[in-house]
Each structure stands twice: as structure tokens, then as C-alpha cells.
Amino acid sequence: MSVISKLAMYGSAPFFCMPYKPFMNQSLGAPYERAYRHFRRDHDKMNNLVYHCMCLVLQLTYNFGLLNEMDEALTSSGSPILSMSTAALWSATLMVHTTAPRSVKALSVISIAIAYKLRKTFKKYLSQMCALQAFVQTRAFQMYALGERGEPTPFDARQYATLLAARLTLQKLMVEPASGVLNKARKPINLGLAAFMLSTCREPFQGTMPFVFGMFGDLLSFLTQQPWMFFYSGGFMATLCQGVAHDVAKQPGTLPQLSEFRDEIAHSTYFPTLLLHSVHQSLTGVVPAGLDAA
């Protein structure tokens, strides 16, 4: 059961919500208060919170961009079956099963509603989004691929500039001249991606991590002309972005520290409210009852 749960959570991108995740959180997840204590411990610096608000925008954008692609694949009319059910179930979970202030709950739901409303427009800006996320992908590559195992590489401006230039050049070639060159290889590529996720999501923070896909999945989506892959890889890229935020703020990431699945699923499901609740606490100084040690 634990393997299936891990695959269900991490295989769909850890911070993405799907129609089944609120139910999985209700049956397997930890209480909101426990999740908030873990979150606040590692997200009490304002710069980290600001960076994570940007990450939340990315997560919601890619999440509902992917759901829209799935809706269009399921029905000829593109009825928002998955998008609407996800937005409704996720919003209900954040409203009913969290103990955050009402204003925080409302902002959480509003952020989901905005992403749902704009879901059809995201696909128009894939090349621009690809260029912007290259800045984060380059730092993530510098941190995790070039450093010692478990020890992020310190920021090296010259190395970063060189890597970024190489990344943007590669993107320029793949987004335009080489776009669609791998169309005929979609099936084996997609099967290979599925196999990769099956093998890495069981223990996502050991060995090869599924988040690696966030470093190159966007380029692969252009080569195969599959927008859904862009949004799907974006979920892993945005998670890497959160890792970069923690590195800049000099605070440890929460998810890698959690040893119980109930904490992992609660952390990802409640993420919008956890983040905005922590911002609220930092701005107002109001410590939730029973969480003085948070």
C-alpha cells in the first residue's frame, strides 16, 4: 500500500492536486495542525515565504494546465470534468479540514479558482514560460547535479551564467527548428517516462529522483509536441524551484525531512493554505493556538 501511495502522490507531481488526492489525504493524511507545525518550522523567513508564493503560482499554473490537457483528451468538447472536480474537492478540503484563519482559507480557494479560470490560456505561452523557468532549472542543475550528493553546490555566478547561456541556446534550437522532430517516437518516449516514474517515485529522495524530469521535460515536450508533458514536467520543476528557495533562504526543505507518508500527503495537499497561513503569522504575529512551538 505504501508503494502505491507514493506512486499516486509523487507520480502525479507531489504538489499537484488530482481528484483522488483530497480523498487520499482524508484517509491517510496527518491533521492540518501537525502539517502546519512542520511547515512553519522551515518557512518562517519572509524571503523564503515570498519565494514560495512564486512557487505556488507555478504549481497552480502547471497543475491546471495539465488538468485542462487531460480534459481535452478525455472529451471532444473539452468539458472540465477533471479540472472542475479537482478545484472543487481541493477547495472544500482547504475550507473544511484546516484550522487556518478565514482570510487565509479564502485566499487559498481564490488562488485555486484563478488557476482554474485561466487554465485554457496557459498553453498560449509555453515558449515564454520555458524561457523564464530556465533560470530556475539552471540553478537547480548547478545545485543538485554538479554538487556532492546531499550537499547543494554554492552559487557560482560565472558558472551559472555559462550554464544558463547553454540552456537558453539549447532551448532556442528545440523550441523552434527542432520542434516536433521526435513526434514519431512519442509512444516509446512516453512509455520510458512512465517506467522512469515507476522506478523513482517509490523512494523519491533516494538514488535518482523523479524531480530530474523537471530539468528537461519542457524541452522534450517541444521535441514531441506534447503540451501535457510541458505542464507535467512543470510540477517537478516547480518543486525544484522550492528547493532553490530553501537554499537561498538557508532553511531546510520540509518534504525530504518527513519520514511518514501521512505527513508527506498532508504537506502537499494543504500546501496553499500552509503557505498563506505562515505568511499571515509572519505579518500579524498571531501564533495559532497549540502551535507556540511551531
Average pLDDT confidence is 93
Q: Terminal Cα separation, in Å?
A: 31 Å
**Into how many domains do the coordinates divide?**
1
Count of distinct strands: 0
Helix content: 55-70%
Structural class: mainly alpha
Number of helix segments? 13
User: Radius of gyration from the CA trace?
Assistant: 19 Å
Element-level helix/strand string = HHHHHHHHHHHHH
Share in β-strands: under 5%
Catalogue the unreliable spans: none
Spatial shape: globular
Largest sheet: none
Give a short synopsis of this structure.
The protein is mainly α and 294 residues long. It has 13 helices and no strands. Helix 7 (126-145) runs antiparallel to helix 10 and helix 10 runs antiparallel to helix 11.
What does this structure look like?
This protein has 13 helices and no strands. The longest helix is centred in the first third of the chain and has 29 residues, at 46-74. The mean pLDDT is 93. With 294 residues, it is mainly α. It is globular, with a radius of gyration of 19 Å. It has one domain (2-284). The protein is 69% helix and 0% strand.
Features:
294 residues; single chain; globular
Could you outline the blueprint of secondary structure elements for this entry?
Elements: H1 2-10, H2 21-28, H3 32-42, H4 46-74, H5 81-96, H6 102-118, H7 126-145, H8 157-175, H9 186-200, H10 213-224, H11 227-249, H12 261-269, H13 271-284
Helix pairs in contact: 2-12, 3-13, 4-6, 4-11, 4-13, 5-6, 6-13, 7-8, 7-10, 7-11, 10-11
